[in-house]
Specification:
The protein is of the alpha+beta class and 150 residues long. It has helices at 2-18, 126-132; strands at 27-30, 37-40, 49-62, 84-86, 95-100, 106-113, 122-125, 139-149. The chain has one domain: RlpA-like domain (Barwin-like endoglucanases, Beta Barrel), CATH 2.40.40.10. The chain contains 2 helices and 8 strands.
Amino acid sequence: MLSRARSALPGMAVAALLAGPAFAPAALAADPAGRKPVISAPIISDSALETVWRQSGVASWYGGKRWQGKRTASGARYDERQLTAAHATLPIGTVVRVTLEGTDRSVIVVINDRPGTRTRIIDLSRQAAANLGILSQGIGVVSLTALRGG
C-alpha cells in the first residue's frame, strides 16, 4: 500500500499544481443534432499558454470500433476524431502539448481518459496520432508539456 502511495505522490502533486480555474474541464457541447455531448478542445492561442509540467516517453494511440462511443473517465463518449488523450496522473481536463521527438510536429490535446496500461506515458486519440504522424507506427517517442492559460 505504501509503495502505491509513493508512486501516486508525483501525480497528486501535479494535480494540486494544476488544479484551479485555468484547468476547467473541456467544454461539453451538444452535437449538431443535439443528441449527446461531445468533447471540444478549448480554443487557446500559443501566446496565452504557460508551461507548468513536462514528461517524456513513449506514446501510443487508440481508436476503432472497440472504443468509439464508449464512455471515457471524464464521462464523455470517446470520439477518435477529437484531439483528446488518456494519461495516468494528469487531472481530467488538463491541456497538454504533445511533441514528437526529433521533429517540429506537435498537437494540443485535452486529457479526458485514463490509460488501460502504464507502459506508455500517454494514449492519444486516432486524430491526435494522425496529426503527429505516428498512426502507421502505432507508437512514437514524445515529450508532454502541460499548459496553463496565462
